[in-house]
Amino acid sequence: EEPEYDPEEPAGMLKGLQDVDEAVDERMERSTLRLFKGSKAVEAGSDEEEDDDDYDDENIQQISSDAVPFRMRGDPAEDDDENESDASSSEDSDSDSDVDDNQNKSDDDDDSDSNDENDSASESGSNSDDDDSDDGESVGSGDADKALHSGVSWKSGIAERAAQSFLERQASVLNLQELIYGSNKSKLVTDEDDDGDKSDSDDDEFFKLKKSTRESTNSSERKSNEAVSLLGEEDSSRLISGEIERIDMEEWLEEGGDNLIESLRDKFVTGKWDKPAGSGGGNDDDDGSAFGDFEDLETGEQYGPNGEVLSDNDDEASDSDPTAGMTDAEIRAYNAEKKAKQKKGFDNEYDEEKKTKGMGGMKDDEAENEYLETLKRQKEEKMKRNQEEFGKEGERTRLRHEGFRQGLYCRIRIDGVPAAFLENYSPEQPLVIGGLTPQETNLGFVRCRFKKHRWHRKILKCNDPLVFSIGWRRFQSIPTFSTEDQNGRHRYLKYTPEHMHCFATFYGPQCPPNTGILAIQRMTGNITGFRIAATGVVLELNASFPVVKKLKLVGTPTKIYKNTAFITGMFNSDLEVSRFEGASIRTVSGIRGQVKKALREGQPGSFRATFEDKILRSDIVFCRTWMPVEMKEYYNPVTNHLAATGTDGWYGMKNKALLQLETNTPIEVNPDSIYKPIERTEPKFRKLKVSKKLEEALPFASKPKDEPKRKRKGYLQKRAVVMDTAEKKKFTFLQALNTIRNEKVKIRKQKKEESKLEKAKKNAKKEEALAAARKANKKRQYRAEGKKEKMREAKRAKVGNS
Amino acid sequence: QGFIIPFFILRCYPTPTTAKCEVYKETHHYPQYPPHHHLTAAAEMGKSSATAFSKRKNSGGGSSSSSRTLRFEDGATQFRQRIVVSLLSHRPLLIRNIRADDLQNPGLKDYEASFLRLIDQLTNGSKIEINSTGTQLRFHPGTLLGGTDLKHACPDSRSIGWFLEGILPLAPFGKESLAITFTGITDGLCQVDPSADYWNRSGLPLFSAFGIGVENDFDEEKPQIRVLQRAAAPESEGNGKVLFTCPIVKQLQSIDMVDPGKIKRIRGTAISCKIVSSSMAARVAYAAKGIFHKLLPDVWIHTDVHTSKRHRCGPSPGIMMVVSSESTTGIILTAECCMDHRQHQQGVNTDSSLIPSKTGLEIPEDLGKRGACMLLEEIRRGGCIDTSCQSLAFLWMALTPEDVSRIRVGTLSQYSIETLRLIKHAFDVEFKVTPDMESKTVLLSCLGTGYRNMAKAST
Questions:
Q1: B99, A233: Cβ pair inside 8 Å?
Q2: Digit-coded pLDDT (tens) for B163-192
Q3: Is residue A268 less than 8 Å (CB to CB) from chain B?
Q4: pTM for the full model?
Q5: Hey, CA dihedral for A59, A65, A68, A70, is it positive or negative?
Q6: How many CB atoms lie within 10 A of CB A70?
Q7: Which ipTM did the prediction report?
Q8: b/e per residue, A246-262, with b = 16+ CB within 10 A?
Q9: What are the pLDDT digits (tens) for A499-557?
Q10: Smallest Cα distance from A18 to chain B, Å
Q11: Does A461 touch chain B (CB under 8 A)?
Q12: Fewest CB atoms within 10 Å of the CB: A695, B43, B113, B257?
């Protein structure tokens, strides 16, 4: 019998897997035999057989190269040693008491074996397990087994056997999963697979670490070189082994009533509607009933017309049509489904009603209860969905797809625990084990909204280490504070604002946005006051964040043309200038300009600039720039469980101030930072000269009025004033009065000054006495407070010791 | 507040600024540490503890999670997907033996290098290390940025569709929404890679199925793939432009695509580029319609004729057709075909011929029929998704919230099987693969990892 598709192509082979339309009865027999073997190795546990198995694979390679990678992938013998050790150790961790006592025995033996042997031995263990469980089946395939057992004659009829095994593999439905992921040797095991009461009866078993059969598939090197040959290095989703998939046109263009196109008619709206929608075009009725039963046994489920899972079907007959001719069981299932739908609909309606109604009248706790109820129901629904989807084929497969769900007991092995942890472990402190998503294990920069705690006494300094507590983790890191400007620029802050939020950026594990943050300055020692330094919330994660500091570059003009000036002293080289070409600059007086081009001659770094107006020689030109602030990549997890004294035994980085105090280092004083009196030379301006031409053109109001001295006196100046006697008398009288007043003012001023001096002398004596008293008072006060503090400290130390 | 300013400090080192005193205020509260615990020692201690951790990680090496690097020894197979998966799973990537056996042209190809450049553009903090022969790639994933007004020039050896296919899975997980313009070849390489038109027809419905851009109100914020300018293989000369925009999501939605429905309409476009005779496209469309009309009356195949004068299409002539069927349940299956030219052999790959040479060019009618048959083949296979979209759907299914996602697939392609393996390797998500004998389809279901877009900033 010819398969419909070319088995040479992998796609064709897969198709062949799905539509098995020949030798139904025969296949049925075989498949039922395969039923329990499907997921496991076939042969009984002896090394010879394993060899045979491998050999079979090679034969298949001859027949169909496509089949090989699938099989080989599932084949442990093909894996590297290194790979094996990896996988075996990994399996150790998550395996359970899967296998029977028999299995356990063989496993125990394995412990003593080397890694290489461990593999085969454990495999044989699992094989033997299989045999125990389904003896009946192995009898069924006895013919083939006999042929395999008779070591001498194994060479005869290799091709036939290979072909047969290939067909058998095709027959087995579950193989599709196996083809993709490799055979599922027992990886995860629970009580259900075990004898149910075993784990209950002996608790000791639970705490013993068990060696497991290793799973052959789960490793990176599984994708060995075969995959290359198949997909090719072109990385194309349409090429298969570097070949274009060709479509057989003749098949499609064939005329006649029973052609390929006609077979598709039911997939269109123009076709029959009562057929199941998901059905294929071709020979449906051939395998529909024939495989219904088969599938029932394998998967325990069947798919309805719309792909929804119908419940188990115990009857022999499985009519795929849901609307007519249903058996009792089906009707029951159908009704149950209907009911469930109705209930769900009601639930949703109920929730909606609560949501819309409840906002107004309901009390807080009532609303909360409702919310919790809804959450609970949603969770239950989800569990049910999962159960429906993955729960049908037993616990083992469920765990494979779902992982460990809530409420399962599991044993966890943690590798690489430092010795210090065990030495210093105190059972008084419970350990809580939590999980992190792979994203959260990465280190990077975290930006958060940050606020100094209102009870914390001091503002926090940028670049001082802080201990952060985020989610599961505590670690020390160095934050950089910043604030966001109107244009979205993050400007560096030296200190946190007193009462406002700011941004903090630090290097640490990436945690999802909206996670709360708590920061303290130090874990150890007795700290007076409020310990929590700041709180915050994670906003954003990135590999780097731009935080900038303002930097003003200053230059002076050397030569000034109309609107152009040559500026020096701002840059050091032509290269720097070229980097800043087009940058906007400004004089102190507010004239704006632009950097044009570096000058060839003169001081290096001088450049030509243009301004909106002529600038003065005395103007200082500056360029406002923003410097990126380098952030420290410091991350130090708080490993208090590794220290004998717990949190006190962990030392983090100290801030500079503390170090200076401890080491008695004087504070560095940068002489440049000290303020000095500013000495300014008064600028000498030249006299303003207005050219005659301009002066003439000016309007009268703007014309300079100060006429130059005349050489000859004018008419008025020339005339002498002669007073008559009466006038003269008046004039002299007024003069006398003025003289008297001037004298009086002079005397008053003198007296005032004298009295001022006297007063100052008196006050100085008083002030001296007061200052002395104040100083003494303060000293007394501080001493008392210091004593009190000491007492408190001693008390605290006492409490701590006791 | 009752702080005591230690006098001795003030006395010994008078400080001009109050800020420095501020720091000293608290210091006397602390017990004196032994002097060896100074700053550098503390820093070193931190470092040493960190290295100790990393060492432990390596030596522990048993479980797959502890050695986080994704290692591949088999060269450039699945090149894009591996990088994408590395970015999504935040696990470093090591690919070895990239065309190591090829003595003439070992190492990465130009299109792969271009893809790396594209990834570099889309991410921040990614480290890409390639050894001197180009046969080894070490990739350390950074943060996905996205961004608008991005541009990427694709080499002529691969169509824009290849690059699109690579970054489609990443697009919704950036820091901000993505708008990127590709320049390069748009048509004529669809035997090798799905074209931009294909992704527009078949890929975008997947976006909405996974809830990407669903709640956005404006059309501009919805995901779109638009061919702005066409250029057929083998030469684009910088013509050919495709705009891809995609909004970001916080989480995907899980899907339940199991009902293929009945096909109610077929739509398509026959495109010709730089071909003087405009009847060529019409002939393609006519031939295809002839086949579809046997099954369905509702068939529209438009013609789209691009000339170098009017549309500034690329210098090479080409003709292609994209057809898609839409079912009553909204399932869209797409097929495409294009005229292959023998020149493509040089265009795509000089040493290993991607496109085997044919004796002659096929006539437009044959092309139309071939396209129609390809779509019918997709329909015959059944399922709710066509072959080239499978791997994208699978990858996103693995990233959905922790809920069951189900999809019905006609035939698993080799590429998507490798994708499933890669997903298992990187995310440890194993799909349940159940063949449905009755309809000859495969049902795949998985429990999502609950992936969250951590790059997205909270406001």
A1: yes
A2: 999 999 999 999 999 999 999 999 888 888
A3: yes
A4: 0.67
A5: negative
A6: 25
A7: 0.79
A8: ebeeeebeeeeeeebbe
A9: 999 999 999 999 999 999 999 998 877 777 899 999 999 999 999 999 999 999 999 99
A10: 5
A11: yes
A12: A695
